[in-house]
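Sample pair:
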Amino acid sequence: MKAVLVTIGESSKSPRPHWLRAPAPVGANYRALKSLIDGMGLHTVCESAACPNIGDCWNRRTATFMILGNVCTRRCGFCAVQKGAPLEVDYDEPRRVAEAAAAMGLRYAVVTSVNRDDRKDGGAELFALTIDAIRRRIPGCRVEVLVPDFQGSRNAMEIVIDARPDVLNHNTETVPRLYRQVRLGARYDRSLDMLAYAKQISPQTPTKSGLMLGLGETTEEVLGVMRALRAHQVDILTLGQYLRPSSRHLPIVRYVPPAEFDDLRRAGYQMGFGHVEAGPLVRSSYHASEALG
C-alpha cells in the first residue's frame, strides 16, 4: 500500500475513475420508495447526504432512515446534509419510520440522524423510541443505529443502548490530523470514548465505525485509526472513497484504487475485526445486514 501525503487544500485533477460508477437513481422500485418516503414525511441519509449508492439500494428496497429532521447543527466539511437552525422534534416520526420499514418489507433497518447539539441528550431519546417502534411493528426485525457523538454524553449513549440495538455504529470518519477541517465540532478521542463506552455497558452489542478515504490521509494514518478502533473493541469496519457533494465542500485529494481498499480489508481482518467492508463505493450502511451473517 502506497502512502500519499498531501494537504487538505489540494484537489484531485484527474477525472472520476471507472470504478466509481454507480447505477442511476431510476426504476420502478426507486420511484415507489421515493413516493413512500415523501408521502410519509420522512428523510433518508441516502437523499440528504447525496449517497452515490441510492440507485442501487433503493431499487433493492433498502434505505437508511434519518431521524430528528434534515437540518444539522454542525458544519462538517464533507457532508451534504443541510446546516442551520434545527427543526422541532417530531415524536410521531418513530411510528412513521416503523410503518415505512414494514411497507418496504425490511428485516434489517438502519437508522441515523443529524447532529442535534441543541438537545441535552443529542437526540438519544428519539433513537430509542424508533428502535422500539420498529421492533413492535416488525417483530424480529434487526435494527442498526448510526449515532452522533452526543457531545460525549454517556447518559445519551446509555439511553440508546438500553433500547437494545442490534448494531451500534459511530463513524470516526477520518484520521486525527484532519479533524479540524473535516469534522468541525467533533473530537477523535471523544468518538473513540463513545464507542468504548457502548461496548463497556453492553459487551454483547456489536460496535461499528467507518472512515472516508481520499481527503489527504496517509495509509499509515488509516492503519493507525484501524488499530485504535480495535483497541477500543470495535467489531465492524467500513472504508469508502470520499466523494465531494458540491464545490462548497472539501476537495477530493485523490481517488483510492480498489487494490488499496483490498489491502486495507485484509489488514482489518488481520487486526481482528469481525467484518470489514472496504471499497470505493462503500458507505456506513453498505451491505449492513451481512455483517451479522
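Residues 77 and 181 are 6 Å apart (CA to CA).
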